[in-house]
Amino acid sequence: MGRSMEHQELIQRILGGDSRAFGQLVEHYRHMVFTVCMRVLRDREDAEEAAQDAFVKAFQNLQRFAGQSKFSTWLYTIAYRCAVTRGRRRKPATQPLDEVNAEHQSGAGMAGNPQEELQHHLSRALGRLSPEDASILSLYHLEEQSVEEIVTITGLGASNVKVRLMRARRKLETVLRAELGDEAEALLLKDG
Questions:
Q1: What percentage of the chain exceeds 70 in pLDDT?
Q2: pTM above the 0.85 mark?
Q3: Which of 86, 108, 135, 139 has the fewest CB atoms within 10 Å of its CB?
């Protein structure tokens, strides 16, 4: 059974009152919904609350999902907008100095696991991009959303998404080269 058929069946079960079916959808999408919110908000607590808000709104509006787009696109649109709304309402975040030191030292203990080290550097580099750039890169490369789907999610025009995607890749490359030096070349060649 294809993913969209499976989700349509789950949606019908949810609309019929099966709350466990909604739990299955939440479980399937919770990581990426959180990631979308985290890329916009850059604060774990705010991102968790925005993700929770997104799932609540999705549940409340599920009967409005017409199936004209993929369910994931519809859900990520809600998550993105919840995160943007929460970001507008909050005060600018500051990071305590002891957290900065702990974050800096956390990278030192990963030398034994190249995959963890790669994830760490990539996550830090994405954190140095604007929330919009990090979100677009995450949606396109990590969640494999198309440009058209990102247009739906963000409300930006297609040409704007393409330009932002190109610029964000360049910025990410610059940040990775600055952080990793020659090691960035191997990472960038893998992605190319």
A1: 78
A2: no
A3: 108
